[in-house]
Design a protein that fits this description.
The chain is of the alpha/beta class. The protein has helices at about 5-10, 15-20, 45-60, 70-80, 120-125, 150-165; strands at about 30, 90-95, 100-110, 130-140, 165-175, 180. β2 (about 90-95) and β3 (about 100-110) form a beta hairpin. α3 (about 45-60) runs antiparallel to α4 (about 70-80) and α5 crosses α6 (about 150-165).
Amino acid sequence: MSDRNLLSSVSVPDRVVRTRKVRRRLATESGADLLQPSSRVSENELQILSHARAILLRLCGDRGTSLTAPRAVRDYLVTLLAAQERELFAMVALDNRHRVIASEILFAGTIDGSSVHPREVVKSALRYNAAAVILSHNHPSGVAEPSQADELITQRLRDALALVDIRLLDHFIVGGGQAMSFAERGLL
């Protein structure tokens, strides 16, 4: 069967076409399977944190609401990353009006580092059709201060994302139940 005959024999149900209409969509979270119980967090506490993340994502992630309160992002990232025993690197994808499209844990490392690949960050942002992103990672040591490596990778990520017209709005470091913002410190 030729390609032309094959394509003409494929039918697309009407309901699939109709789902392309604009609908309110809630933001999604992926990579959460990387979150595991640790010596610092019990199974019950992990469930509570999971529910808190879902509530915060829903509150800051409704496609009808712009993300104008940095505190909501900070709270979400702290509940997502603070209790982890290994370093995790996350991205929050935003549309043109800074509404949350998705939240994804992109990389998982060890207790003192994580390999971050700019190519993979750009691929993920493009997959969500993001106009802007907020990046975050945790420091399992509890110290929310950026290292020189953190500053360098942030600049590389900002430059890589800029090549495809995606703005890096901020990069948070979560440690000790707090989050430090690169933008607030003038490091972006």
